Amino acid sequence: MLPALTAILLCQLAGETIAAATGLPLPGPVIGMAILFLVLLLRGSVPTDLGQVGGALLANLSLLFVPAGVGIMTHAARLEAEALPLGATLVLSTLATIAVTGLVMNRLGRTGRRTDG
């Protein structure tokens, strides 16, 4: 199990290194996850021990949100003071996402159909 956890952490480290070196606007863990995905895709299967480590991490995923919850509680007063701008931003960004998704799907649906004649 330790080699599998090491492989996951090395992929994250590689992602962090790439993000810092290139200045990409992607978080290092996302790049690391893509690296791990590509490695597993090339390999063709997920090793058993890597699957077990991944399952254990997913089973305890709620514990990984504790630091974020603490940060929210620490800044609760600021969040309360800025509730209106945050709420408006969330609503508007959600509506914009739905609109753009609808337009893209509409456009892709049109290009997929061909008319004969």
Structural features:
117 residues; mainly alpha; 2 domains; 7 helices; 84% helix; extended; CidA/LrgA family protein
Measured distance between first and last alpha carbons: 62 Å
The percent range for helix content is: over 70%
> How are helices and strands ordered from N to C?
HHHHHHH
Overall number of domains? 2
Mean pLDDT: 91
Largest sheet: none
Share of residues in strands:
under 5%
Shape: extended
Structure summary, number of beta strands: 0
In terms of quaternary structure, what is this? Answer: single chain
Secondary structure tally, helices: 7
Report the structural category: mainly alpha
Determine Rg (CA atoms, Å).
21 Å
Q: Low-confidence parts, pLDDT < 50 over ≥5 residues? A: none
Organism: Antarcticirhabdus aurantiaca
Protein name: CidA/LrgA family protein
What does this structure look like?
The chain is mainly α and 117 residues long. The chain has two domains: 1-64, no CATH class; 75-117. 84% of the residues lie in helices and 0% in strands. Helix 1 packs across helix 2 (28-43). The radius of gyration is 21 Å and the shape is extended. The relative contact order is 0.07. It comes from Antarcticirhabdus aurantiaca. This is CidA/LrgA family protein.
Strand-helix topology:
Elements: H1 2-22, H2 28-43, H3 48-59, H4 61-64, H5 66-74, H6 76-81, H7 83-112
